[in-house]
Amino acid sequence: MTAGQNFATLIRKRRRQMDLTQGEVARRIGASIGYITLLESGRRHPSEKVISKLANVLGLDQRELFFCANPSTERLMSEQQRAEGRSVWDEFRADERLHKLHDITEQEMRTLSQVALMGEVRSPRDFVFILNTIRHALGK
Predict the structure, then answer these.
(1) Quick one: CA dihedral 38, 40, 41, 45, positive or negative?
(2) Which residues of 75-106 are buried (b: 16+ CB within 10 A; e: fewer)?
(3) CB 44 within 8 A of CB 38
(4) Last residue within a domain, chosen from 53, 69, 85
(5) Residue 105 and residue 48 in one domain
(6) Final residue of a domain: which of 69, 84, 115?
(7) How many domains does the chain fold into?
(8) Which residues, in sequence order, are CB contacts of 133 under 8 Å at separation 6+?
(9) What confidence category does residue 85 fall into, taking pLDDT thresholds of 50, 70 and 90?
C-alpha cells in the first residue's frame, strides 16, 4: 500500500465510521464530491489546508493526518530526533496522542516493547503497523 493509499484508506474509513457521505464531507470542507472521490482513491494529494479541514470534519489529529499524507516528512523528522539521541522506541513510547488515536493498551505496549528489543524499527508508525498486524492475526 502506498502512502497515498494509506491516507485514502484512513479518510474513507473514518468518513464511513461517522456515517458521512462524500457529499457531506465535500460540502463541509468546501470541495467537490469528485475531489473527495480522488482523495479516497489515492489519486490526488491534499494540500495542507485540505488536510486541516479534513482533520476537523473527521475528528482526526491534524498532525497525524498530515504525516499520513506525507510520510517522508515524518521520516525526516524522526531521523533528526534519532540523531539527537532518541530511539524510535522512545519516540513511540512518549507519543501519548498516537496511543490514544490507536487505542493502544498497556498490555499491547508491553508486547511492543519486546518487539523493540528484537531489532531496529525505522519509525514510530512501524510500531502501529506491527500492532495492527498482531491485532488482525488475533481477530481483533
Answers:
(1) positive
(2) eeebeeeeeeeeebbebbbebeebbeeeebee
(3) yes
(4) 69
(5) no
(6) 69
(7) 2
(8) none
(9) low
Same domain, 92 and 131: yes
Q: Which domain holds residue 112?
A: 75-137
Amino acid in position 106: E
Q: Write the pLDDT tens digit of every residue in 106-122.
A: 999 999 988 888 877 77
Do residues 65 and 86 share a domain?
A: no
Give the C-alpha separation, 1 to 120, whole Å.
22
Distance separating alpha carbons of residues 140 and 136, to the nearest angstrom: 6
Distance CA 36, CA 22 (A): 6
Whether the CB-CB separation of 26 and 33 falls below 8 Å is answered with yes
Task: Give yes or no: residues 8 and 65 share one domain.
Answer: yes
DSSP string, 99-125: HHHTT--HHHHHHHHHHHHHS--S-HH
Specify whether 16 is located in the same domain as 65: yes
pLDDT value at 80 more than 70: no
Q: Is the pLDDT of residue 75 over 70?
A: no
Quick one: pLDDT band at residue 2, thresholds 50, 70, 90? very low
